[in-house]
Design a protein that fits this description.
The complex is a heterodimer of chains A (115) and B (113). With 115 residues, chain A is mainly β. Chain A is 0% helix and 55% strand. Chain A has no helices and eleven strands. In chain A, strands 2, 4, 5, 6, 9, 10 and 11 form a seven-stranded mixed β-sheet that branches. In chain A, strands 1-3-8-7 form a four-stranded antiparallel β-sheet, with no helix packed on it. With 113 residues, chain B is mostly beta strands. Chain B has strands spanning 3-5, 10-14, 19-21, 24-26, 31-38, 44-50, 56-58, 64-68, 73-78, 87-95, 101-103, 107-112. Classes of the chains: A mainly beta (115), B mainly beta (113).
Chain lengths: 115, 113
Amino acid sequence: DAGVIQSPRHEVTEMGQEVTLRCKPISGHDYLFWYRQTMMRGLELLIYFNNNVPIDDSGMPEDRFSAKMPNASFSTLKIQPSEPRDSAVYFCASSSPGDWYNEQFFGPGTRLTVL
Amino acid sequence: AQSVTQLDSQVPVFEEAPVELRCNYSSSVSVYLFWYVQYPNQGLQLLLKYLSGSTLVKGINGFEAEFNKSQTSFHLRKPSVHISDTAEYFCAVSVITGNQFYFGTGTSLTVIP
């Protein structure tokens, strides 16, 4: 398996624009997590899905952020409108069937810069 | 509420010297504990985890950690570090009956030749 795939790897956009980050989890994994990493706040869990259903989105910072998982092999994290304070590295992770605390496999991340 | 504290934000150490990265957690319930490593420009990968059983857990790359319930600690150790161990290390905790993962702020380990 190629591991967790994220695209794009780098995104530079201007304030107010819509940004969509994409993630393909490892085949067969039924948990998917979105994280945000910044120097100031460290690594934060934004939302996670189980079997394509959002379970906990309490980490989503505000209504400008939304996440979907239309099928088992694809998820998106959208920011609309984007703001400079959204600049961060966004990671997607997935874990294998069973208990959610199994090892999480992380993607390489998307580095987002909002000007 | 649960929280994870990594007491050292940066740890420089000479090559082949031992290292300990400290992690303390607070929780009123039983937890699972993890250490992840992040190499530059990469995602995190699991080093080791404690779920139950022996309090001394061995992981990849020669790392080990010891769960100390009375001190609510889960310190990471390696007897002899290599240049390739230079990375960011994250401690994480999850509540057994819950569904949340809490990461510490990370410790940057720099191995000096």
